[in-house]
Structure formats: C-alpha cells, structure tokens
Amino acid sequence: MYLPDSSILTNIQVQGHSRLREILFEKKYIVIRSLENRLCTDEELIKLPEMAAEHPHHREWEIRRRSLRRLLRYLTGRKRPLEILEVGCGNGWLTHNLAELPGTKVTGVDINFTELQQAARVFSNDPNLRFIHGDIRSGILEERRFDIIVFAAAIEYFPSLKKILHFGLSCLQPGGEIHVIDSPFYRADQIERAKRQSHAYFASFGYPEMADYYYHHNIGDLKSFHHDLLHNPYSVYSRFLRIINPNPWIRIKNI
Q1: Residue 63 and residue 244 in contact, taking contact as beta carbons nearer than 8 Å
Q2: DSSP strand pairing (129-133 vs 146-152)
Q3: Which residues lie closer than 8 Å to 145 by C-beta, 6 or more apart?
Q4: Which of 13-17, 23-27, 79-83 has the lowest mean pLDDT?
C-alpha cells in the first residue's frame, strides 16, 4: 500500500493469506520490539541515530550512526541525484536521513504497519520521501527501478539470501547497487549455533516461534554475486583498529 507524499495512512487493504501472515508476524514482532525497548517515541525518532547515553541500546545506535555516516559519504560521492529504495525501513529513521541528500528521492518499504505509520507521521513534511506498505515481492513497486537499494538490519528477515538478492537486482537500474548493512552473516559452521542462540533469545521473551522468522545467512552464498565488502569486520585491519561494527557492509553490483 502506497503512502503518497509521506502522508498518514487512514486505512489498510488486506489482500489474501499473505497479508494475514504479515499481520500475525507484525503483532508478535511489535511485542518483542516493545519488550526489547526498541520502540521509539516521536521525539526520539526525529533525532535518530543520535540516542541518549543512558538508553539501553545506545551502543547499538552508535554503530548505526557510524554506518549511516559511511553510507552518506559513499552516496555523496556518486555526485548525481539518486533514486533509493530502503527495504525493511521500519520507523523510517534511515530513510529520512537518506532523503536529506541533495536531489535524492527515497522510498521506504516495510510490512511493519505500526512503525510505518509513525514514520509517515513524523516525516510527513519531507518532499523527497515516501513510504509503501507491503512486501516488495508482491508487485507493489510497479516496475519501478532504483539506483540504490539498501537493506539495513533487514536482510535477516528474508528466508533465502540468494532469492531476495536476485529480486533486488531485478529492481535496479543498469549499474545500480544493493547495499546490505548492519546485519549479521555467518560461516557455514556457525549457523546451527546461531540458530540455537536466536531460539533461546526469543524464548526468553515468551515467543520462541519468532525464531522461525529470523534467518541466519551464510556469507559464502555471496560468491555467486558481483560483490565486495566495503567494511570487512573479519579483516586483521578491523580487528587491529578495534572497529566496533561486527557486521559487514556488502555492496552488490548490477552488472
């Protein structure tokens, strides 16, 4: 569902069983987000990624602030207007920051209707920003093509890394790029342990079934794509400098 010019949604169109699955997921997801203290007030949202030092997720927001700074520097270096899509934009904080790049048009997409409504309300005056409610694989993008697609802490909610990346590539202009940031990746021998940890984590909140919606992607699955690591947390350089972001910044080119 399209939110024209970042306006506030007044109704929801429910379309079939896929939308019902989204609603069931969202209800539990929002409960978990609340228990984790990850839902922001409007006043907090407008300032993100700046977060009060006493906030329990301050360190995480410091990581995201640095990721944003690097991404903005990179995109500014393109030196031309860009059409950007953020997949899994949530409350729109990153989408909003990207939309401040001169001449840039940014679209945020998410199935999380609760936080998307907040995004549309808080950032309603931004002419370069719009939001769409739904799954990008359902045709809601209407054959639009983008220069840049960003998955920020979102790729882990798609079951197949290869399928979503191939779909993303189909939504790019020639020479376009996918950027995956702030998401964990694993070696093949790490995945089963990571799955157990995720199950235990969600079980601690009383929702072990939420682990079924969280996927642990193999870094080796990127080999079939034209990709590089713009931030490599596994390198000796990163470890030596004690760079605190444990997740890679992955660029995938549409060649």
Answers
A1: yes
A2: unpaired
A3: 83, 171, 172, 173, 176
A4: 13-17
- C-beta of residue 98 within 8 angstroms of C-beta of residue 104: yes
Range of the domain at 206: 2-253
The confidence score (pLDDT) of residue 234 equals: 79
Domain CATH for 149:
3.40.50.150
User: What's phi and psi for 168, nearest 5 deg?
Assistant: -60, -45
User: What's the pLDDT band for 70 if we cut at 50, 70, 90?
Assistant: very high
* Number of domains composing the chain: 1
Whether the pLDDT of residue 178 is over 70: the answer is: yes
Report DSSP letters for 39-56, one per residue.
PPPHHHHTTTT---TTST
d(CA 30, CA 131): 19
Q: What's the residue count for the chain?
A: 255
How far is residue 17's CA from residue 206's CA, in Å, rounded to a whole number? 25
Q: How far apart are CA 89 and CA 105, in angstroms?
A: 15
